[in-house]
Amino acid sequence: MFFTESVQIMLSNFSFDDSNLPALNVLRQEVRDFLEEERQRGTVLRSPEGWDRFDPAFSKRLGARGWLGMTLPKEYGGHERTALERYVVTEELITAGAPLRAHWLTDRQIGPGILHYGTEAQKRLYLPRIAAGELYFCAGLSEPDSGSDLASIRTRATRVDGGWRINGSKIWTSGAHRVHMINLFARSSGTPEDRQQGVTQFLTDLNSPGITVRPIINMHGDHDFNQVFFDDVFVPDDAVLGTVGNAWSQVSTELAHERSGCERWLLSYGLLTRLITQVGSTPEPHVAERIGHLVAHLWTMHRMSFSIAAMLEEGKTPNVEAALVKDLGTHYDLEVPVVARQLIPPHVRASLEEDAPFNAMFNRVLDYSPSFTIRGGTREILRGIIARGLGLR
Q1: Fold held by 2-135
Q2: How confident is the model over 332-360, as pLDDT tens digits?
Q3: Distance separating alpha carbons of residues 17 and 30, to the nearest angstrom
Q4: Tell me: domain 261-389, CATH 1.10.260.40, correct?
Q5: Are 31 and 87 in contact (CB under 8 A)?
Q6: Which of 114, 134, 245, 276 gives a 20 to 30 Å CA spacing to 47?
Q7: How far is CA 257 from each of CA 65, 238, 260, 368, rounded to the nearest angstrom?
Q8: From CA 23, how far away is CA 374, in angstroms rounded?
Q9: Contact (CB, 8 A) for 227 and 168
């Protein structure tokens, strides 16, 4: 029993030595108490989808608790909590399998982006609704035929009387079929050869005339991705986020939030917990060693990610550190299903019920794992950022 209990306690508690930060311990317990209440309601469960479930009602309950828009100023509906406090809340929610997809991207990066770059009118219009869990965005970044080369975008924003006319398309747009708005990254001057110059962000209502959202069904049979088409879509001048032509530096700051969070190394967390349960309380020594390696790696990612939250709290933009955490996290999330396949071989999985918890979790992670390498930037892009930060390029 010692092996299973000790590893499960470490996974569930994340006993990071934050004794000098007692408020975080209190907050962590508050979140756990809330999650226990939600388990009784059936909204929090260790399902294959984990936190990647869309539940607006749950998002609104988080907003009512003050756990959305945590770092935003109170005058805009926020709570002026620290980035470390937000980290504790999100880590607990993700590892519990709470349904976070509805508000996730909006709370993580759109809200901070509007706070830093938005007009006063934009802050007052959007931030209170974001903090309440009532307004959801998707990110309009990637484009067909561009891979991860974001600087080569061709979606065009042309100035017209009173605003801009948008033409083009975005792809792999998660959640575009069920959120309210898109943070659109478009070229407002020059050509794709100009790279980072002449690109602008637009806060765009997805109900605008001329926008078409087409589903992309993934290999698991789920509808998460979309391709979004813009055909002469008009957006007013007050939809511009930040400075016209300066979106590249704005997006770089946004991506630091996207790449450094604990969700970047917890995509396979549910499978790890099922694997520990499946091997039982007295596994063979080589099995215990392999799982111990995974848990140690998990702990390292936690410490690194937590330290980046501290950097964000200090007002820093840790682009290189965030890229490093994302790259290591991708490697980790790909390693977990490989180890699971080796420790629970096909003939053993076949002996289990088809919908057994381990099989269901394993099959989902295996199907989704190819996408882990491109979320938040491919490994090649991330390693390029790291190399430049180290002066190697």
Answers
A1: Butyryl-Coa Dehydrogenase, subunit A; domain 1 (1.10.540)
A2: 999 999 999 999 999 999 999 877 899 99
A3: 18
A4: no
A5: no
A6: 134
A7: 22, 25, 6, 22
A8: 36
A9: no
Whole-number Å distance between alpha carbons of 263 and 261: 5
Residue 373: CB partners within 8 Å, gap ≥ 6?
330, 334, 379
Q: Phi-psi category of 245—alpha, beta or left, where left has phi over 0 and alpha has psi -120 to 50?
A: left
* pLDDT number for residue 13: 42
Q: Kind of pairing, strands 199-205 and 240-241?
A: antiparallel
User: What is the secondary structure of 51-98 as a DSSP string?
Assistant: T----HHHHHHHHHHT-SSTTS-GGGT-----HHHHHHHHHHHHHHT-
pTM for the model stands at 0.87
Locate 251 and state its tokens.
């997006």
> For 211-242, what is each residue's pLDDT tens digit?
999 999 988 889 999 999 999 999 999 999 99
Measure the CA dihedral 234/240/245/247, to 10°.
Answer: -120
Protein fold of 138-246: Butyryl-CoA Dehydrogenase, subunit A; domain 2 (2.40.110)
Asked if 2-135 and 138-246 have one fold, the answer is no
**What is the per-residue pLDDT for 1?**
47
Domain boundaries, the chain: 2-135, 138-246, 261-389
Structure confidence at residue 57 as a pLDDT band (50, 70, 90): very high
Nearest CA among 385, 375, 293 for reference residue 339 = 293
pLDDT at 139 over 90: yes
